[in-house]
Amino acid sequence: MAELTMIQAICDGLATALRQDKRVVVLGEDVGKNGGVFRATEGLWQEFGDERVIDTPLAEASIVGAAIGMAINGMRPVAEIQFMGFIYPAFEQIVSHAARLRTRTQGQYSASIVVRAPYGGGIRAPELHSDSTESLFVHIPGLKVVVPSTPADAKGMLLAAIRDPDPVIYLEPMKLYRSTRQQVRQEAYVIPLGQARQVREGEALTVLAWGAMVPLVEQAAERWAQRGVSWDVLDLRSLYPLDEEAILSSVRKTGRVLIVHEAPKTGGLGAELTALINEHAFLWLEAPITRVTGYDVPVPMFALEDDFRPNQERIDRAVEKVLAF
Amino acid sequence: MLQQSDQAVQFLQPDGSLSDQGRPVWESLSSEMKRKFYEGMVLARTMDRRSVILQRQGQIGTYAPLEGQEAAQVGSALALAKEDWIFPSYRDHGAAMIAGMPLDRILFYWMGRVEGNIAPKGVRILPPCVPIATQLPQAVGTAWAAKWRGESSVAVAYFGDGATSEGDFHEALNFAGVFRLPCIFFCQNNHYAISVPFSRQSATATVAEKARAYNLPGVRVDGNDVVAVYDVMRKALNRARRGEGATLIEAVTYRKGSHTTADDAKRYRNRDEVKEWERRDPLQRLEKRFLIDGTLTRGQVETCHRRCREEVDKAWKKASQAKKAPPTHLFAHVYQSLPAELKRQRAQVEGEAHG
Ligand SMILES: Cc1ncc(C[n+]2csc(CCOP(=O)(O)OP(=O)(O)O)c2C)c(N)n1
């Protein structure tokens, strides 16, 4: 066991996969000699060489397209997109090919790739670096979309994603890269995709969150617990497929739901979660499901970032509303 | 005439002497123009160094330094006419300031304020483009509109060597070639896209030769030679204005510092290389020239540096004292008129702001 930050845990996960499985390669911009702009691939190029840790030209469509091609021919590529805001040149490859290769070839081929991308705000990054467009990918049938929020999850989920036979979009909340350390097991271990993590148990309210919103919600839950109001907090981890059982059983227990995400509200994953709960647990609800989200505006440059992202005040106000209904 | 040239055009050599080709060009320039080269480069460098310090002090966010690339940016921008369009990337504020972007707005940009994206009325500079190479097809479209409207304006896209790997680069050059558009693709080949050297970016030895595939002239120029850059740019602009179409210019240069203040270039560049490029510094080269032919005295050089420092001080004072926009500013200009849901969200923010 070692105390690792999330970024170190990701690096450790990649090293573990590269050691374990000859079919694994890592490719992307600056992942080699430089060790990645966030140091997610630190030391890998030195250990595994240029053929398995590949600095590519600056071309996202080719990074992901080539990864798909490698997967067709038996490899297990992990492609790094430097920031989620730069994934769009590769969108075509992801949407038109990775997501439907299995269907189109009726199982003959599959795009067993992982596309890693840092995402989300909170670190005063330049324009376009802080978007949360996870729901674009959640909307595409054929993809899995996952987001860890702790170092230990980051490693276990990454190893699960690499072993997964389907394409996995693995999103990394930049805000959490170095915010905490946690004991992370040295060996290879897997956190199965599709399972939410119960962060806290409570009776009064179910709160659903993922990525950088999880610690924010934990803090709020702690404050409310001191006032005698306990929350069930779920870190979804897997945005597609959703852990329906965990979500619904919590809702059936508490009857009240708050969803917190940093992506804009309209068409965000919160809307899908609301529909899911309506379809399967409507009769247990005691208040309208409430969302605290980013606004429907382009993610601002960082001077206004704090005004855009959900914060403690906005969460408190929403919780008061949900509980008082 | 602009000819395909794989050999970099160089007029002003690192020791301040002129090449045979360069002498007549230098002699044809007014001393006012020569001074503008110098003042522009000193201003760009002063502003750049101050910005790095401001970032270290936590006053501005992550910053992309341009030191080393002053000649490429200043020389090319000085050749532009007021009606020309500029599509810059995040490292091109040296070009932008020459083309009329006020310094305080440039600082605003790095302070994470959207006001930094807006050029004064009549100055045709688009916001710095962050997603690599995406501004190139746009420059093509603007050039196309200019052609259609019968304007004499030219659209110039600034980008780095890394950008030449993206599909957008190839698509833009192809359009420009097919439709013969008044567009200039100005590549600053500073040898690295973050850590990736040009040899890993491209299997060709130069950027300029890629133009052939699109039937455009591709010109390689010493990007640390302000005189050559200015001259090559002027010719390309004239060519575009005559209706002869686009040009790809490869200004061969070097960024002296790291990619951004969040990067550490020591991880991927060796000291000898950095030192070699220090020797080719664009500003020192012009200073040496001036000392040889007396365009500027030492006193004038010092005055120039002092004035630039004052100008940057003034801009920082203005930018740092400007009031922060209120949270409701998030909703300004998203749409011309706000949809109902957005009005609700705005009202919510207003309510919160008032307690
Ligand atoms: C589409 C896209 N992918 C990745 C990035 C991240 N990134 C920012 S700058 C950069 C390197 C750009 O190099 P180059 O085009 O040579 O320009 P330079 O920074 O050297 O001026 C990268 C990879 C980005 N901004 N856009």
TrEMBL record, chain A:
Q: Please give the Pfam families that the UniProt record associates with this protein.
A: Transket_pyr (PF02779), Transketolase_C (PF02780)
Q: Which Gene3D superfamilies match?
A: 3.40.50.920, 3.40.50.970
Q: Any idea where the Transketolase-like pyrimidine-binding domain is? A: 4-179
The entry's keywords: Oxidoreductase, Pyruvate, Thiamine pyrophosphate
Q: Where is coiled-coil annotated?
A: none
Q: Kindly list the cofactors needed.
A: thiamine diphosphate
- Xref: InterPro entries: THDP-binding, Transketo_C/PFOR_II, Transketolase-like_Pyr-bd, Transketolase_C
| UniProt keyword Ligase, yes or no | no
A molecular function GO annotation: oxidoreductase activity
Instruction: Tell me where on the tree of life, at the top rank, the source sits.
Output: Bacteria
Among CDD domains, the record links this protein to:
TPP_PYR_E1-PDHc-beta_like
Question: Know the name of this protein?
Answer: Pyruvate dehydrogenase E1 component beta subunit
Q: Record the organism.
A: Desmospora activa DSM 45169
